[in-house]
Design goal:
single chain, alpha/beta, Rossmann fold, Arc Repressor Mutant, subunit A, 2 domains, 9 helices, 57% helix, transcription regulation, phosphoprotein, WH-like_DNA-bd_sf, Sig_transdc_resp-reg_receiver, CheY-like_superfamily
Amino acid sequence: MDSNQATVYVVDDEIEIRSAIGRLCEETGHQVRLFASTDEFLRERLSDGPSCLVLDVRFPGTSPTGLELQRKLAESGVPIPIVFISGHSDVRVSVEAMKRGAVEFLPKPFREQEILDAIRHGIERDRRRMERERAVREARQRVEALTSREREIMLLMAEGLVAKQIAARLGVSEVTVKVHRARMMRKMELRSPIEVARLIDSMGREAETTRASAGQPQI
């Protein structure tokens, strides 16, 4: 699959529903994968590109429900945006799905534009996530090129300290701090202390997400 093209996964036990959604998505230029159950979807190798999952809430037999699949994906560190669809009016289920981060919860029957708008929103969310992760990866590569002193100064800047305070903390002159700070900012391609703080925060959040999903079974 083209990693730049969005992929829409449709999981619904009603062939008419999943075929109709699949056709709409293909007409709008998306790659489409259709599944009759959550068990089938769990055996799929997901695309490396932006994607969205259109997921029914209930399934017959022993297949996991939509909410169970949502939880399983979250526990496994699979951040695919989910658009729920359901033929049953259940406020509790819809509230729980949205609390867990679902993009939308649409009752059947829904209008074509409703489902297309929800899918577009999900794909845009996934594109933004991928862009953030790519930016953090690139930043980590640049961090590796910093000296230990430059890294120290970057972290202290992220805490909100100015050159004079950093100098006192490290026991060096303010001029020395300014020299190292300028080199660090140039290597990291940053322009202000605010950008430094944002970068450190985003790198920290990514590390927390990685630790949270470590050791979990992969889909």
